[in-house]
């Protein structure tokens, strides 16, 4: 296995973390005679070894029934080859598996969230061949040869995707559970608008030509498939407007400064502005 | 979810043969309705025949025959692509608006045109397997008839079932006098007028439509009309977006001078099938296109409505929605 292959699917942060966890022990181990496969299996079962498992091509181990640590047998198995965040994946799975469960349970990509599992919340939104879809209602088997992008695949070369950065700046979340879906959806929304796709609130679908400029009403309508139970909607709209227009939208919150943090009497009170 | 065999196919004849060979198999298109119902154990196919790779995705102008000038839409085209096709936006904006009024951007990117026609009711008793439902389990009774039936029918229902068809796209297709093209395992094509495609529940609510077992929808044809600039799809719902219709209205008004030559009106959220408002249409022929006339047409249409315990509000709502949709149609929805 080439070096490049080994690191497929890992972010820079994960790679750094991994080299810290594993240090020199790994190469030592294989020389000690303990089979690497066995070692990985133990590490995985111990719960802490997911990253290592990925590094050494965990999917290939999983795909060969003899070495599957937790799957005894697969009913109506289908073989799926597709791309996830640019990396080729090939695995054998139960025909019932949704794309969401495959990402989360088989590929350790837990960024995509399971909110309702019935198409009603948008938390599981990912991009398939560049289009936003609901991974909870997508059968994994139907993704053969397709290319999937999840929230984990949006950052490039250690830089957040502009939409991720805008969500941070505008505090476009509270608990964060809906956020991966919101961001994937928002990224797709911008390319749809650029491609001239109209919406139910577009004034005239007959005469609308070229890229659609997104008013707040347009953004809200186009994002309606992503529910936020915490109600972070105004900030989400601000974040999207900022990336869409390329112009800064004023941030409506600030961190406390050191002074405020150390001096509680500085905190705003009703009688003291 | 119950186990099933996954069978990808690449031709119409292979797909239809698969369903002939296994009567418990189902076609899988976008999966947005079928997978949901399988998770709920309402649909229990033993095999899914994946038809998403069939090349029935094209939208093209009809250049010969009776429907010349009209358009044909592939059954496996995605709702998003159909709504945004330049020919459809230009000549059938009513269809564009109706599709975009439904579901969410993600779902429309997945949903196919054929799947949209065959989506099943959202009646909560149909979804809840511990409740009686004649559509899910013929003979078990109807949970909604005496239950919470706020979302249910006011036209054409029976003691056996009071459910409504949930589609928005289909309401526009009914007003547009579309034709559904289907093909069975024998290779023969049938054409079904849209208003005959879905059915009223009668004693057999388990049958949503007139498709024969195993038949595949291949395309939908829409004849050309003279109301592209004077049409509108109005959807009234509990929240501004991403909710099924309480009532929806697809309206197209063909004018001759200031008078109405003919009007095409279909209602959603009121019956087991998209409901053509024939009474209102008849009244409007030859009348001036005024709000007063639209109101009177709406009154006439709603006369035969029969509400259930919780949905009497749909009658007044229906009258106002029809009037408003017709008013909006006069300005192409740009008011
Ligand atoms: C949360 C949510 C909200 C929604 N809101 C709306 C809404 O507001 N308005 C609205 O109109 N819709 C709404 N929908 C429904 C959505 O539009 C439908 O689920 C979708 O159109 C179904 O298409 P599909 O390709 O995914 O069908 P599938 O789920 O793949 O199939 C549905 C059925 O059709 C059959 N089928 C599919 N293609 C064919 C074919 N070519 N020939 C014969 N049979 C076929 C399948 O066997 C299955 O029985 C909503 C759905 C969800 C999940
Ligand atoms: S209304 Fe129809 S779908 Fe709903 S419970 Fe009654 S029979 Fe079932
Ligand atoms: S988890 Fe997929 S839409 Fe809610
Ligand atoms: S941030 Fe909590 S659900 Fe959206």
How does this structure look, described?
- The complex is a heterodimer of chains A (273) and B (335).
- Chain A has 3 domains: 3-63, no CATH class; 69-153, Ubiquitin-like (UB roll), CATH 3.10.20.30; 154-253, DNA polymerase, domain 1.
- In chain A, 37% of the residues lie in helices and 10% in strands.
- Chain A has 12 helices and 5 strands.
- Chain A has a 5-stranded mixed beta sheet.
- In chain A, helix 8 crosses helix 11 (233-245).
- Chain A is globular, with a radius of gyration of 22 Å.
- Chain B is of the alpha+beta class and 335 residues long.
- Among the domains of chain B are: 5-53, Uridine Diphospho-n-acetylenolpyruvylglucosamine Reductase, domain 2 (2-Layer Sandwich); 231-330, Enolase-like, domain 1.
- In chain B, the strands form 3 sheets. In chain B, strands 4-5-8-6-7 form a 5-stranded antiparallel beta sheet.
- Chain A binds chain B through residues 75-76, 78, 94-96, 98, 117-119, 122, 125, 131-134, 137-139, 141-142, 144, 185, 188-189, 192, 196-200, 203-206, 208, 220-222, 224-227, and chain B through 1, 3-6, 8, 28, 30-32, 35-36, 39, 48, 50, 52, 80, 83-84, 89-90, 93, 96-97, 100-101, 103-107, 109-110, 228-229, 235, 240-242, 332-334.
- Chain B: This is Xanthine dehydrogenase family protein subunit M.
- Chain B: Keywords: FAD, Flavoprotein.
- Chain B: Residues 1-227 form the FAD-binding PCMH-type domain.
- Chain A: InterPro entries: 2Fe-2S-bd, 2Fe-2S-bd_dom_sf, 2Fe-2S_ferredoxin-like_sf, 2Fe-2S_ferredoxin-type, 2Fe2S_fd_BS, Aldehyde_Oxdr_Iron-Sulfur, Beta-grasp_dom_sf, TAT_signal.
């Amino acid at each position: 296995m080439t070096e490049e292959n080994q690191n497929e699917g890992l972010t820079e942060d994960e790679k750094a973390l991994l080299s810290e966890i594993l240090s020199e022990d790994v190469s030592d181990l294989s020389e000690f005679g303990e089979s690497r496969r066995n070692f990985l299996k133990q590490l995985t079962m111990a719960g802490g070894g997911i990253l290592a498992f990925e590094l050494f091509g965990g999917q290939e181990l999983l795909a060969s029934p003899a070495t599957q640590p937790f799957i005894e047998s697969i009913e109506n198995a289908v073989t799926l080859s597709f791309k996830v965040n640019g990396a080729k994946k090939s695995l054998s799975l139960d025909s019932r598996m949704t794309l969401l469960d495959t990402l989360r349970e088989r590929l350790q990509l837990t960024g995509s969230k399971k909110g309702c599992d019935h198409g009603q919340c948008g938390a599981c939104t990912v991009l398939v061949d560049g289009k936003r879809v609901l991974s909870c209602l997508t059968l994994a088997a139907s993704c053969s040869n397709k290319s999937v992008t999840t929230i984990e695949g949006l950052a490039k070369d250690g830089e957040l995707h502009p939409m991720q950065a805008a969500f941070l700046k505008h505090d476009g979340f509270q608990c964060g559970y809906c956020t991966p879906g919101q961001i994937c959806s928002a990224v797709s929304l911008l390319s749809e608008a650029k491609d001239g796709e109209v919406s139910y609130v577009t004034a005239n679908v007959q005469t609308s030509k070229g890229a659609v400029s997104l008013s707040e009403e347009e953004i809200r309508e186009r994002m309606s498939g992503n529910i936020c139970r915490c109600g972070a909607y105004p900030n989400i709209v601000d974040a999207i407007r900022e990336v869409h227009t390329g112009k800064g939208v004023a941030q409506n919150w600030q961190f406390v400064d050191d002074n405020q943090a150390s001096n509680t009497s500085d905190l705003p009170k009703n009688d003291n502005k | 979810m119950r186990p099933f065999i996954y069978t990808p196919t690449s031709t119409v004849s292979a797909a239809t043969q698969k369903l002939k060979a296994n009567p418990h198999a189902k076609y899988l298109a976008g999966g947005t309705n079928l997978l949901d119902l399988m998770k709920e154990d309402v649909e229990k196919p033993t095999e899914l025949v994946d038809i998403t790779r069939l090349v029935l995705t094209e939208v093209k102008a009809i250049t010969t025959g009776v429907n010349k000038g009209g358009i044909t839409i592939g059954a496996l085209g995605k709702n998003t692509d159909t709504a945004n096709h330049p020919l459809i936006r230009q000549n059938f904006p009513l269809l564009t608006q109706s599709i975009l009024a439904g579901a969410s951007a993600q779902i429309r990117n997945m949903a196919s045109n054929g799947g949209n026609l065959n989506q099943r009711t959202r009646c909560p008793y149909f979804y809840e397997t511990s409740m009686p439902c004649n559509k899910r389990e013929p003979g078990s009774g109807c949970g909604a008839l005496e239950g919470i039936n706020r979302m249910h029918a006011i036209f054409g229902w029976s003691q056996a079932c009071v459910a409504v068809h949930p589609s928005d796209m289909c309401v526009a297709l009914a007003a547009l006098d579309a034709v559904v093209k289907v093909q069975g395992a024998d290779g023969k094509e049938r054409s079904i007028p849209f208003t005959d495609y879905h059915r009223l529940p009668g004693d057999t609510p388990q049958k949503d439509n007139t498709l024969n077992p195993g038949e595949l929808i291949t395309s939908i044809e829409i004849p050309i009309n003279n109301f592209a600039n004077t049409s509108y799809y109005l959807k009234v719902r509990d929240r501004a977006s991403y909710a099924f219709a309480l009532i929806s209205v697809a309206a197209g008004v063909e004018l001759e001078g200031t008078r109405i030559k003919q009007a095409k009106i279909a209602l959603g959220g009121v019956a087991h099938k998209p409901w053509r408002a024939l009474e209102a249409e008849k009244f409007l022929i030859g009348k001036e296109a005024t709000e007063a006339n639209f109101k009177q047409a709406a009154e006439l249409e709603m006369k035969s409505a029969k509400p259930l315990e919780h949905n009497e509000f749909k009658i007044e709502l229906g009258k106002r929605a029809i009037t408003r949709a017709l008013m909006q149609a006069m300005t192409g929805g740009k008011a």
